[in-house]
Amino acid sequence: MEVNELLESLSWRYAVKKFDPTKKVPDEKFEAIEESLRMSPSSYGLQPWQFVVVKDEELRKKLQEVSFRQPQVVDASHYVVLAVKDRLLMEDVEEYLNFIAKTRGIDVSVLDGFRKSIVGDMIEGPRAAMVNYWATHQVYIAMGFAMEAAALLRVDCCPMEGLIPGEYDKLLGLVGSGYRTAAAIAFGYRSPECKLQSAQKIRYPKDRVFKYL
């Protein structure tokens, strides 16, 4: 990929407010976006998230009601809810370490030092009480990855925080699951009626947002 291709994609992307409900994202492209979410980095590599792809139209209508009736929820081709862990248990850590050992063909005992670091920080340390807060920060990294992947594929999207997490949890069956709703992303194609597509992108100049030491 050339540098100009990346920059063009960044400029082309915007948070679409009005999707064309008749246009659907091809399976191949959406699967690539799903893979960008799956491949996203996270602290310790723990991946404290679950991505809920909402296909059911009636469920999406119910979600729209607790999303301040934003049209993207029902008009977009695909709607993905980003849920994050509300707690981290020792069994989660052991499952993760065993998965690493199996994937890399090593004895899990090799990871004892890594286990100690995770447990000392996330299980027994001060961050144990703020796992949901920490996990929400992690899932926003995944959100950024998915948004850029979509832009490179010329698939529109809209990151969404304008929703009521507790109501989403009820509708999605997340209550008691160990996960809570953090945000969502709508994917699809912009409607010709979406006025923002021709609006100048508002970004501060480089010297305003960068500091070099």
Layout of helices and strands:
Elements: H1 3-12, H2 27-38, E1 49-53, H3 57-65, H4 72-75, E2 78-85, H5 90-104, H6 112-123, H7 131-152, E3 156-160, H8 165-172, E4 179-188, H9 206-209
Antiparallel strand pairs: 1-2, 2-4, 3-4
Helix pairs in contact: 2-7, 5-6
Defining key terms:
213 residues, alpha+beta, NADH Oxidase, 9 helices, 13% strand
Strand count, sense and barrel status of the largest sheet are: 4 strands, antiparallel
The CATH class assignment is: Alpha Beta
CATH superfamily membership, which one?
A: NADH Oxidase
Order of helices and strands: HHEHHEHHHEHEH
- Assign an overall shape: globular
Residues in helix, %:
40-55%
How much strand? 5-15%
**How many DSSP helices?**
9
Distance between the termini: 30 Å
Query: Measured on Cα atoms, how large is the radius of gyration?
Result: 19 Å
Per the CATH scheme, the topology name is NADH Oxidase
Low-confidence stretches: none
Mean pLDDT: 98
Given helix and strand content, the structural type is alpha+beta
Order of neighbouring strands in the sheet with most strands: 1-2-4-3
Number of strands: 4
CATH architecture: 3-Layer(aba) Sandwich
The domain count comes to 1
